[in-house]
Amino acid sequence: MISEPLEGIVRVTLPLPFGLDHVHCYLVRGPDGWTLVDTGLGTPDAAEQWASVLAGLDGPVVRILVTHFHPDHVGAAGPAAEVTGAPVYEGELDRFQCLRAWGPERNADRFLAFNRMHGLPDDEVESLARDSAGLASLVQPGPEPEPLAEGDRLDGWEVIHLPGHADGHLALLRDGVLIAGDAILASISPVIGLYAESSPDPLGDFLASLERIERLAPAVALAGHRETIADPAARARELVAHHEARLAETLAHLRPEPRTAYEVSLDLFPNAPAGTPLRRFAHAETAAHLEHLALRDRARRIEEAGLVRYAA
């Protein structure tokens, strides 16, 4: 589906085979051509899909930006670069994590061991291993990208670092318009999870990013999923309140006896079915909230016998 949410910006909505069934990519008109922001999954027909979309433009795509390394955003960067001949731009930290998660440096054992350490049961670990391998097959990150960082400018847009959902998440800001990726979403909260070799406090990073969005007060945010956000500052405040309530709820489910993040997640997210990505997102989110509490001495973190547990 193709639409034009703002003058000079085209939104391309691509299907996803997940619970969240779509991702928005954006084409931004510039003086020398179009900038493509995010690329969808690297499915076998991704190059043909993008060739069909780009055939309807009135000029070339001259650059591609990856906001973050999750498969629905970076997956087709390689095919899109092949079709357009355009360079790919990506943050250095994000590229490093992309290759560690999906590329030749991928180490599934390290990833699975981290989840076991936080209490994920063996059957869930096996399911996670299968799903992770399937996702890796849908990521074609493309050639070595041009590096981007906070404060750089890309075709007149300021590059903003908004970590939390991903450590190296980048967004674009110009004239009150924030092309936000998954840094902020309408009607749902971006997944904020604790993962192997990621930030020690992803929730703290996310809350700081939300406070920054509130300070910047863009007029509109074009997000990677769901609706356009008409008041990003107000939505940022809502998400801060949501996570403050989730932290209080997490504390309420701690006991004097230590519990793993997985055990606490069963109380916080009782309706997430076992063996599904929803259950594993619940586990990662719970671990992020527990670590946030432990880092602020609001909970105890106990690591022994190969397990990390938390207690009141």
Essential attributes:
312 residues; alpha/beta; Metallo-beta-lactamase, Chain A; seven-stranded mixed sheet; five-stranded mixed sheet; 38% helix; 22% strand; globular
Present the secondary structure layout.
Layout (H helix, E strand, L loop, with lengths): L1 E5 L2 E7 L6 E9 L2 E5 L8 H9 L6 E5 L5 H4 L2 H8 L3 E4 H11 L5 H10 L4 H15 L9 E3 L4 E2 L2 E5 L8 E5 L2 E5 L20 H15 L3 E4 L8 H21 L8 H8 L8 H19 L4 E5 L2 E5 L1
Parallel strand pairs: 4-5, 5-6, 6-7, 11-12
Antiparallel strand pairs: 1-2, 2-3, 3-4, 8-9, 9-10, 10-11, 13-14
Helix pairs in contact: 1-3, 5-6, 7-8, 8-10, 9-10
Structure description:
The chain has 312 residues and is α/β, with parallel strands linked by helices. Strand 4, helix 1 (46-54) and strand 5 form a beta-alpha-beta unit. The longest helix is centred in the C-terminal third of the chain and has 21 residues, at 232-252. The chain has a domain at 2-103 and 139-241: Metallo-beta-lactamase, Chain A (4-Layer Sandwich), CATH 3.60.15. It has helices at 46-54, 71-74, 77-84, 92-102, 108-117, 122-136, 202-216, 232-252, 261-268, 277-295; strands at residues 2-6, 9-15, 22-30, 33-37, 61-65, 88-91, 146-148, 153-154, 157-161, 170-174, 177-181, 220-223, 300-304, 307-311. Helix 8 (232-252) crosses helix 10 and helix 9 (261-268) crosses helix 10 (277-295). Helix content is 38%, strand content 22%. It contains 10 helices and 14 strands. The N and C termini lie far apart (49 Å). A 7-stranded mixed beta sheet has the order 1-2-3-4-5-6-7. A 5-stranded mixed beta sheet has the order 8-9-10-11-12, with no helix packed on it. Strands 13-14 form a two-stranded antiparallel ribbon.
